[in-house]
Amino acid sequence: MKKDILTINELSPEDISDILNLSAELKGKQKAGKPECPLIGKTLGMIFEKPSTRTRVSFEVGIYQLGGQAVVLPVSELQIGRGEPIADTARVLSRYIDGMVIRTFDHQTVEEWAQYTSIPVINGLTDLHHPCQALADAFTIMERKGQIRRLKLAYIGDGNNVAHSLIEICAKTGMNISLACPKGYEPDKGIVEQAMKDAKRMGSRIEIIKEPLEAARYADALYTDVWASMGQEKEHKKRVKAFKGYQINKKLLNIAKPEVLIMHCLPAHRGEEIAGDVMEGKNSVIFDQAENRLHTQKAVMVRLIK
Ligand code: CP
Ligand code: NVA
After folding, report:
1. If you classify domain 133-287 with CATH, what class do you get?
2. β-strand partners of 178
3. Mean pLDDT of 264-281
4. Which of 94, 143, 171, 189 has its CA 20 to 30 A from that of 206?
């Protein structure tokens, strides 16, 4: 049966650890100049309804490195733009291509694609989830700290798509997560409730609080994301007010553990959710996270498409 990755929640702890191990193997081989090409002859379809630098380029380069090829499918140039249903398009594309990555707004849209395709669908970000980002983040923590379990991740800011996938991956890998969010910007209750059950099984803790300093205390990793996500541009001014004080800066860095990792999925707004000096400082692993999108997504493609 085909497997999709629409959320982290549908992966088991074993799936996640397998993807992270394979990521390390593929990264090592690529760096040693001995890349593997298990996807020769395979084609990845790419639909991006929102802008993207990292996700789009890392998937496209990733499939090339694995021996396959990408076909970029702008919705405006497909018949979908003229009203052909996803249900029909999905079945047609399944006859040509071997997997798809989709970035869109409504999470239900990727569910609809997954329902009608007979090929794996990978969520490249929706308003609700960003599973590929969370896999790269967990891999980055693993690389730097040698473990994930029992560490503490502090997420400061908006309870958004990135936060949701981080909550889910922490719950599945046994990492503690403390989120400091302003009132009205907390993560989705249903996602948190489900994750709390998983976290209990793995012996880890999820807490949603208001106070950034409290979340950051003794943290092994400090993570943030933009205050206004794609599609929320009109709310930017209102959000700048609401998120005042929810910035990763020296004050937060100093209350965390000395070797704390500074993390951000990018793109970043310096001076808003993160101070420029902390972003460029020695604790920052932000550009490793971006690089690791490539390695972890290659692992995902090998497992799903091969
Ligand atoms: N972090 C991330 O998904 O970046 P892009 O929007 O550039 O793909
Ligand atoms: N929360 C951000 C993540 C960008 C990678 C957004 O959805 O715009």
Report:
1. alpha beta
2. 154, 207
3. 98
4. 143
Q: In the prediction, which pLDDT does 1 show?
A: 78
Phi first, then psi: give them for residue 123, nearest 5 degrees.
Answer: -80, 115
pLDDT tens track for 116-126: 999 999 999 99
The answer to whether the CB of 54 falls within 8 A of the CB of 289 is no
C-alpha 211 – ligand 2 centre gap (Å):
23
Q: Are strands 69-72 and 121-123 parallel, antiparallel or unpaired?
A: unpaired
Ligand 1 contact via 54 beta carbon (within 6 Å): yes
Question: Which helix or strand (DSSP H or E) is residue 261 part of?
Answer: strand 261-264
In short, whether 133's Cβ falls inside 6 Å of ligand 1 is: yes
217 classed as catalytic: no
In the chain, where are the structural domains located? Answer: 8-129+290-305, 133-287
pLDDT at 271: 98
Residue type, 279: M
For the whole model, what pTM was predicted? 0.98
Task: For domain 8-129+290-305, give the CATH superfamily.
Answer: Aspartate/ornithine carbamoyltransferase (3.40.50.1370)
Let me know: does 231 contact 237? Beta carbons within 8 Å.
Answer: no
Residues contacting residue 204 through CB under 8 Å, at least 6 positions apart: 149, 150, 170, 171, 174, 175, 176, 177
Each residue of 178-200: pLDDT tens digit?
999 999 999 999 999 999 999 99
Mean pLDDT, residues 205-222 taken together: 98
Active-site option among 133, 247, 289, 297: 133
CATH fold match for the domains 8-129+290-305 and 133-287: yes
Span from the CA of 102 to the centroid of ligand 2 (angstroms): 14
Average pLDDT over residues 43-58: 98
Distance CA(245)–CA(240), nearest Å, equals: 10
Give the dihedral sign, CA 269/271/274/275.
positive
Neighbours of 74 (CB within 10 A): 12
**What's the confidence (pLDDT) of residue 2?**
84
Ligand (nearest to CA of 286): 1
The Cα–Cα gap between 81 and 210 comes to: 43
